[in-house]
Amino acid sequence: MAKGVPTASETTGDPQGARIERVAVADIGTNSTRLLIAEVAAGQLLRTLARRTTVTRLGAGVDRHGRLGEEAIARVFETLRRYREEIDRHSVDRALAVMTSAVRDAANGDEFAAAVRERFKLEPHVLSGEHEARLTYLGALSSRSADERRRTLVIDIGGGSTELVSGCGRKLGFHVSVQAGVVRQSERHVHSDPPDPAELESLAREVRELLADAVPEQERAGVEIAIAVAGTATSLAAIAQRLEPYDPARVEGYRLTADERERILASLAAMTLAERERVPGLHPARAPTIVPGIVILGEVMRLFGLESVEVSEHDILHGAALAL
Question: Which among 3, 244, 268, 294 has the fewest CB atoms less than 10 Å away?
């Protein structure tokens, strides 16, 4: 730990004088590797000290080969090396890593998790789909009133899977992890540049079938609040507002309508990859997978009869910081 910088556990503060901990969470996902360093106390996230996102595509080829590739692992390790330096500068009390679809699906996932522990001193948590859904829901509701009682649906579109979680307030109800993600479905269906309409229809049809099998009829109606988190949703909010540079404050709470989603899809699907990389509000590294992501979001919204979703920056990183 850096000398002269007190750790959060050596201080007290609100709420009600509870001990404040400084926590670092690395989210090693199928498409991106992210970092959150925050102060937490009494089950609340008090202050964000750092947040970083790097598109590392760890899950590239996992759907086809069943293993994490050496080049993908090297990209993640280089990112974690930089993150570890930042973690050390903040003198954290706890440092952990959550790993989702790519790692839990890969034959060498356990070996990868052990290497993360050994090389970067991050306590690894390879999450089941159910655990991932629970942490996502907790994170999405972390900034909301504990008195909220309306039925809420949280949508988290990742690289290898999509988590759908509903509940009332902080009480979790239905949850499922569906094997539909921006990297997985892109590798399966999109082989043209720009994407061929038939490829996108094939992608949409597969996602529609996966969702129909995973979500019972009785869970599809009655959603009063829909919250979309993670890269597809936040990118759409940024594209809609032409945010250059990206502004989390303007993304948080943005209401994305079904019509706006369809207009953006039509525009981006007609572009080449090089053209999408220049779209205001879209990070170039997300350009290869944004179109499949929008298609997946569209199928989720149709299944639940949603005319709009609220975009949030609060996601599994926040849930892991509070719960693990």
Answer: 3
